[in-house]
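Case study B.
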Amino acid sequence: MAYIILNRSNFYHNLSQIALKTGSLDKIAIVLKDNAYGHGTILMARLASEFGISKAVVRNYQEALVIEQYFDDIIILGGEIHPKPNLSYAINSIETLKTAPTDTRIELKIDTGMHRNGIGAAQLPEALSLIEKHGLRLTGLMTHFRSADELGSELFWQQKEFEKTKMIVRRAGFKDIRIHSCNSAALLRSHNFKEDIVRAGIAAYGIYQFPKGFDAVDLKPVLSLHARRVSSRNLGKGAKVGYGGDFTAPSDMRISTYDLGYGDGWRRGSSAKPYTTPDGASFLGRVSMDFVALEGDKEEICIMNDARIAAEHFGTISYETTTALSAEIPRTVI
Ligand SMILES: *Cc1c(COP(=O)(O)O)cnc(C)c1O
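Model:
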């Protein structure tokens, strides 16, 4: 089977770059949702914890249980609520405030303009009274930006909205509340980070795609994807390769089949626009469920060592390229 290598020193390099922005490791909550963006939840949790990160963000309670032993403090973005002293739940709607069990630690999510999840400014008084009435423990106030990765005024406008809600919550008498609004993009464009936590995902994995006009921070991809040779053969000029015979050998050549396909979460793409590996080898013909074909007969090949490049090729974002990779692919740390 294909395999994934996780580069520990690249990960630590990225975490250090993030810490330079936040001022301390203590302010980093590493986002480990969705199999740590396809990198592997447990391996990345362990590495982050060994580096000194004590906070994490996950998608749901089930994910939190998997990494609980590595962190003091875990923020859960949604799903069923099971109160525990080390877990804190992002509140995405008023309804959740009505059903959350007493003593649940909550991060109230403010909808400052993304209109995906959270409580709008107009609902804030109702939300605060529900928190008191149901005995919920407000530990944090958060928001999420819709355009932190685009230059323009939208981010600042959302930040202003967030400032207003912070004041309302403080005036209502809630104390010791941690504030967090930044994902990777928002942190990387900030010059004086003043909040209590950053929720850092893509930058930690080293595959943040800097938009033009951003001061790029040096980040290094953590994940590389490799495949092993299954079989080789010699083709005569004119022979066709794979489903549909989309590739025709332009001359006599030797080709090999490697053990990666769309069944592993690799993109099938289009054989008319073949993907090229970091060593410059083009995929020959269509990608199958479990196989791809390449010229030559090397035992192992690197398929991808920077998800940003693959994402660009497939017209998607680096998040999708790594998150799609099957959890079954063996992963090792070097
Ligand atoms: C996924 C997620 C993040 C992390 O975003 P990156 O762009 O990967 O840094 C932060 N906050 C919330 C609410 C998220 O869902």
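The longest helix spans residues 154-171. The remaining cases will be described in the next quarterly update.
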